[in-house]
Design goal:
With 367 residues, the protein is of the alpha/beta class. It has two domains: 8-89, Transcription Regulator spoIIAA, CATH 3.30.750; 120-365, no CATH class. It is built from eleven helices and four strands, in the order E-E-E-H-E-H-H-H-H-H-H-H-H-H-H. The chain has helices at residues 50-65, 77-89, 103-140, 147-157, 162-184, 193-231, 234-240, 245-284, 288-298, 301-327, 333-365; strands at residues 8-12, 15-22, 39-48, 71-73. The protein has a four-stranded mixed sheet, with helices on one face. The protein is elongated, with a radius of gyration of 34 Å. It starts with 7 loop residues before the first strand and ends with a helix. The relative contact order is 0.09.
Length: 367
């Protein structure tokens, strides 16, 4: 492309006069920082592209920042349209458009978030009811139960999670014994470290940390798998074929999780007690025989039972939230990643909240 006259800018009687070709290859010669004026004259501009429009808009903004109200004259209709389009798409300056939030704005934002959270809670409760009704229907008609899918998900959420759950619980037992020993040694009550480990792991930490790991591992997998199917419109295809996505996708996952989380909790309890026993032996000299007798004699069966009672409820929370968020995925990958993260965070929050409510309940009934 041949270039015409080199563009020039001059300031005459309060008017910026631009002339020549305002093109990407020629605008470098323009000095847009000279003086101030109320008018920008483009009547002598021969050729004009996006780079030239950028130079004009940049000059216009500089004059506006100086407190002036510049106007552009002599522009053709096409040049005017190009300038208008560029103004709309030019980035704002740092800090421009950022308004300080007033108290009313913050209250409005809080109210909107509260309403959104309330609507999400209602949607999850509705999804829970739909899932429970579907599972009840499957129990009344066992021939419709998809055993292959249930066994597959039991392996995914249960068997494959055993190593990480056992290792986590073992290390928690080691930490409890080590920290407990440091404190109880001051009072000569080292033997009570057995009670500390047993009650903490059997009643609270074993099943709670197992549920947190499962929420991060399996809950996110549920959301990702169902969300990917939602993106590829496979769930719509299921409905077209007369298949219920809740029965085909959600129920097997929830059932598998309800069956396997108590098993994982038991494994975590044994691994935690083993880690605590080994560290007690090393750090305090509490032999395995003394540890076992103290554990059996001073730890009631209800401490073990409380953890197992919580397990199916935690599993239901993780399964419902993971599948629900997967069903909310839209047609883009951004929503899949965002809702997968939301699934993990919400599952862990609800599991901890449920654990706190169980603790209050068992304290009230004296268990």
């Amino acid at each position: 492309m041949t270039q015409g006259p080199v563009p020039q800018i001059s300031l005459t009687d309060g008017v910026f006069v631009l002339e020549g070709d305002l093109l990407i290859g020629t605008i470098e010669s323009l000095n847009l920082r000279q003086g101030l004026a109320q008018t920008i004259d483009l009547s002598r501009v021969a050729q004009f592209d996006t780079a030239g429009a950028w130079a004009v808009v940049t000059l216009e903004r500089r004059l506006q920042d100086a407190g002036l109200s510049p106007r552009i004259i002599g522009a053709s209709p096409l040049q005017t349209d190009l300038l208008a389009t560029l103004r709309q798409n030019m980035p704002t300056k740092d800090g421009a458009g950022v308004m300080r939030m007033t108290l009313a704005d913050r209250l409005d934002q809080l109210g909107r978030k509260t309403v959104s959270a309330f609507r999400t809670a209602l949607a999850i409760i509705g999804f829970l009811g739909q899932t429970v009704a579907t599972i009840a229907g499957l129990l009344l008609h066992p021939a419709r139960i998809r055993w292959t899918a249930i066994v597959h998900h039991m392996q995914q959420v249960g068997l494959n999670a055993v190593p990480i759950v056992a290792l986590m619980a073992f290390l928690i037992g080691v930490v409890l014994a080590f920290q407990g020993a440091a404190q109880l040694r001051q009072f000569g009550a080292e033997v009570f470290v057995v009670d500390l480990i047993a009650i903490s792991i059997l009643r609270e930490l074993g099943i709670l940390l197992t549920a947190i790991i499962v929420a991060g591992r399996s809950g996110s997998a549920f959301t990702a798998a169902i969300g990917s199917m939602k993106m590829r419109e496979e769930i719509d295809a299921m409905r077209t074929l007369g298949l219920d996505p809740i029965e085909v996708l959600v129920a097997p996952r929830v059932i598998a999780l309800i069956l396997m989380l108590p098993v994982l909790g038991i494994i975590a309890n044994f691994a935690g007690l083993l880690g605590g026993a080994i560290m007690s032996w090393i750090e305090l000299g509490v032999s395995p025989g003394v540890f076992q007798s103290r554990l059996v004699g001073n730890t009631g069966v209800w401490h073990f039972g409380v953890g197992l009672i919580k397990a199916p409820f935690f599993a239901l929370i993780i399964g419902i939230v993971g599948c629900f968020e997967g069903m909310q995925v839209g047609g883009d990958a951004e929503s899949l990643g965002r809702l997968t993260s939301t699934s993990v965070v919400l599952s862990i929050f609800l599991v901890i909240t449920a654990d706190a409510m169980f603790s209050i309940f068992f304290a009230i009934v004296g268990v």
